Amino acid sequence: MKETINAIRGFKDILPRETGQWQMVEETARQVFSAFGFNEIRIPIVEKTDLFKRGIGEATDIVEKEMYTFLDRGDDYLTLRPEATAGVIRSYIEHSLHAEDAVTKLYTFGPMFRRERPQKGRYRQFHQIDAEILGIDDPRIDAELILMLMHFLTAVGLAGPKLEINSLGCKECRPVFRKMITDFVRGKEEGFCPDCTRRMQTNPLRIFDCKVETCREIMTSAPVVLDALCGACRDHFDRFREALTIFNMPYEVNPRMVRGLDYYTKTAFEVTTELLGAQNAVAGGGRYDGLVKDLGGPDTPGIGFAIGFERLVALMQAHDEDCRCRHGRPDLFIAAMGEEAQGMAFALCNKLRLEGIRTEMDYAGKSLKSQMKRADKLKCRYTMIIGDQEIANNQATLRDMQESRQAPVGFHQIVHIKKVIKGEKPLD
RNA sequence: GUGGGCGUAGCUCAGAUGGUUAGAGUGCCGGGUUGUGGCCCCGGAGGUCGAGGGUUCGAUCCCCUUCGCUCACCCCA
Q1: What's the pLDDT at A327?
Q2: Distance between CA A255 and CA A203 in Å, rounded?
Q3: Nearest nucleic acid nucleotide to A60, CA to C1' distance
C-alpha cells in the first residue's frame, strides 16, 4: 500500500451524504432571495490582494494574518478571497451595475479562505451565502434585509436563532466614540487582561467583546456606541428599529457587538445560536455606506450579510436523512440473471435513464439474492427482475419493494413502466 | 500564533500495572433458500495499534521527538 495523501488542514470534503442537504439549502436561498428581488452574481475566488486590503481594512486580523496570498509569476499579489463583499463590490463598480438600476440586489455563494487555527465551526476553507443591496440607505431596507435573512433561516429549519443588532456609527461619530473609550480606559490599565491592554492600542472597541470577567465588569460602566451616535446615525437606528417592529421581529440591542471588518457603518447585526460552541455566529452583516466609494466607485450606500454554510448545516443534522434520500435514491434497480438477461438489462437500464428514471443495475453477475439486497440497500422502491422465465414470456417482473408485490410488464412498455414508477399507475 | 485532550479494523470504541496468533459492535463480501430484499443464523476479508527513535530478553503499552485530529484562546460566518 502506498502512502495516502489527505486533504490539508482546515479543508474539508463535502461528502455525497451531505450534498443533498447543501443543495436543499441552496435551493431555499434562491427561492427566498428571488422573492425579495435578488439576482445571483458569480465572481472569482481569487482577486488582487489590494482589493481586500482597501476593502476590509489594512489593520484587521483578516488582512493582517489570515489571508492566503501569493505572488503570481512575479507580477501581482493575489489572494484567495476571505469574504465575498469586496469582490461583489469590485464587480458592481467594474461593470457599472449602478447604471442599470438605482437599486441592485445581489447574492452569491461559494468558498472563502482564512488561515486561522481550525476548531468547531471554523475551517480554513468555508462557505458563505452572501447577499448585498446597493444603492439605498433607507433604514427600512436594513430591516427588510434582516427579515429576508431570518425568514430564510427559519425556512431551512433552523431552530431558535437569536438576532442581535447595534449601530456602529459613521465616519463622523465613530472617531468620537473611539476617543470616549480610550479616555474611559486610561488610568484603568491595571484592571484589564493582557489581551485587552493590547486592544487599547489596536482596537479599543474590541474590549467590549472580552470574555474575562474583570474586563466585563469595568466595561459595564463604559460609554456605549449608541451614546456617541451623531444625529443622522441615531435617526437611522431609530427608524431601523421601528421597521423591525412592523415585522414583529424579535431582537436584542447589543451595544457590545463589534464587527471585524473595517467597512461597516451604522447598522450591524448578528444571528447566533447556542448550539455551535464558541463559534456561535451563523450569520452576520451590516451597512457599509463608504465602501463603494473607497473602492473607486460612485458614492453608493450598501448593506449586506453573510451566512456560514457549515455552521448552518451543523444545526440541521436532523434533516440530513431526508435530503439524502431525496437526492441519492434510485427509482429502479434492474436485477438480471444470465448473460442474455444482463444484455437486455443493460440496454433497458440506459433507455430508462434517458427517460429520466434513476435506474441502477449490477454488472458483476451476482446472485439474484445479492442483487435484491443491493436494491434494498439503495432504498429503491421498485426492482425489475429479468431471468430465463421473463425472457421466455417476453415480460419482465416488476416488484414493488415497499408493498412486497410484483407483476409482469412488457419489456417495451417503457411508458407504462415509467408511470408505475412515478406512481401515476398501479402496479397491476 | 498559544494552551488542553486524543491517535488501536471503513466507522464507533474495548484491551493488557510490558509477554507468544490484538478484540467487540457496526459496515462490507459470501452462504443458509442452485429465482426474490428487510429479520434471524453461519462464515470471510479487513490492523506495520499515527510515524521515527530510545529503554528492555521482549514495546501497541514506558520515555523522547514528530505528524495528524480535536477543543479552547484569538478572531469570525
Answers
A1: 56
A2: 16
A3: B75
Query: ∠ CA(A6), CA(A9), CA(A13), 5° rounding?
Result: 60
Distance in Å, residue A278 CA to nucleotide B71 C1': 10
Indicate the burial class of A6 (C-beta count within 10 angstroms; 0-12, 13-18, 19 or more): exposed
The nucleotide closest to A116 (CA, C1' atoms): B75
pTM (2 decimals)? 0.89
Q: Which nucleotide is nearest to A203 (CA to C1')?
A: B75
**Cell for A15?**
461528502
Q: Rounded CA gap, A64 and A53, in Å?
A: 9
Query: In this complex, which residue's CA is closest to the C1' atom of nucleotide B1?
Result: A117
Residue A197: per-residue pLDDT: 77
Please tell me the distance from the alpha carbon of residue A345 to that of residue A112, in angstroms, as a whole number: 45
The pLDDT, as a whole number, for residue A325 is: 46
CA of A318 to C1' of B12 (A): 20
pLDDT at A216 exceeding the cut of 80: no
Round and report the angstrom distance from CA (A402) to C1' (B37).
Answer: 10
The pLDDT assigned to A413 comes to 93
Distance A330 CA to B54 C1' (A): 57
The reported pLDDT for the residue numbered A94 is 97
**DSSP characters for A345-396?**
HHHHHHHHHHTT--EEE-SS---HHHHHHHHHHTT-SEEEEESHHHHHHTEE
- Through-space separation of residue A391 CA and nucleotide B37 C1' in angstroms: 22
In percent, the amount of chain A with pLDDT more than 90 equals 67
Q: Does A317 or A393 have the greater pLDDT score? A: A393
- Across all strands, nucleotide nearest A388 (CA–C1'): B35
> Do A300 and A137 touch, CB atoms closer than 8 A?
no
Find the Å distance, CA of residue A88 to C1' of nucleotide B73: 33
Dihedral of CA atoms A119, A120, A122, A127 in degrees, nearest 10, equals 150
Distance, Å, A254 CA → B32 C1': 67
pLDDT in tens, A4-26: 788 899 999 998 888 888 999 99
Give chain A's mean pLDDT.
Answer: 90
How many helices (H) does chain A have, and how many strands (E)?
17, 16
Decide if A246 contacts A143 (C-beta within 8 A).
yes
Protein CB footprint (7 Å) on chain B nucleotides: 1-3, 28-33, 35-38, 47-48, 68-77
- Tell me if ipTM is over 0.95: no
Find the nucleotide nearest A276 (Cα to C1′): B77
